[in-house]
Amino acid sequence: MFLRFNNRAVRFPLLKRFLSKMLPLRFAGMSVSRNGVNRLRSRWAIVALQTFLVILLASHWVAQPLPSIAQSPPTAMESPAAGNQGVIVAQAPAPPPAEAPASKGGLDLDFGRIVPDIPFILAGIPVTLIFTISSVLLGLVWGSALSLCKISGLKPLQWFSFAYTTIFRGTPLLLQLSLVYFATPQLTGYNITPYQAGVLTFTLNSGAYMSETIRAGIQAVDKGQAEASLSLGIPYWLMMWDVIMPQALKNILPALVNETISLLKDSSLVSTIGVVEILRAAQIVGANKYIYFEPLLFAGLIYYILVMGLTYAASALERRLRRSE
Prior knowledge:
Elements: E1 2-4, E2 9-11, H1 13-20, E3 26-27, E4 30-31, H2 34-63, E5 76-78, E6 88-90, H3 118-122, H4 124-150, H5 155-169, H6 173-188, H7 194-220, H8 223-231, H9 236-266, H10 278-289, H11 293-322
Antiparallel strand pairs: 1-2, 3-4, 5-6
Helix pairs in contact: 4-5, 4-7, 4-9, 4-10, 5-7, 6-7, 7-9, 8-9, 9-11, 10-11
């Protein structure tokens, strides 16, 4: 359907479907012919379009912020203490408000202010690496023990390893760290240090994740390897150490690298219990200089370099292990 609007034909497909349902129309008891209906449709379409434009312009005008009108202070006011009503008492105008200092536009960054404190931030790198390496090595040993419990076939060991894994994988790491650090003195009377609490928590947590990874790697090794070793009279523990685990290590190396990277980044959580590592050192610098973006950005750069270096070293080790295949 084409409608005439300002001597131009305008197409309204939706209006056509709407008005087609209104036929035949009756107004004031008189039937309207097809031509009359078409003219009526055109008029209603024009009115609807004009109404829509008015509403659109009105909504656009209402959405505009009202101009701020600086109301001048009154120069005269009616004195309530005067005896006669309507007596006007002159009042001096209030002084103009002092102009606020203009804010500095753009990014206010000054990395030169943290240059003297860069050695202090870099001193947190050994602390972070000690936490990460200790947790990975101990977590690998503990995860291997849990994985052997899962595939041992003994129901109590399987139940224990399954319950342990679900608990440590189903609760936040920060909650576990807080429980170990704050609850240990209360329950045992031993005043645990932040370093011990961090390594213990990361070991228990990473052992739960690594146990599933190691279990999958062991089960991915061909069963013929274990059957051949047992047929030759090799003890079970020696078979796992010399035959199964070296082959499983190739399969689980990428997953172990991901777990190590996660531990490296999660080591920043020990700052909540007072350990001055990379993140905590950056926060101290920010608190002293009243700037936080620059030291935190520098700390993020350190974490990125450590993660990329660890990734490259793991890729080189994986390529070296693949050469023997």
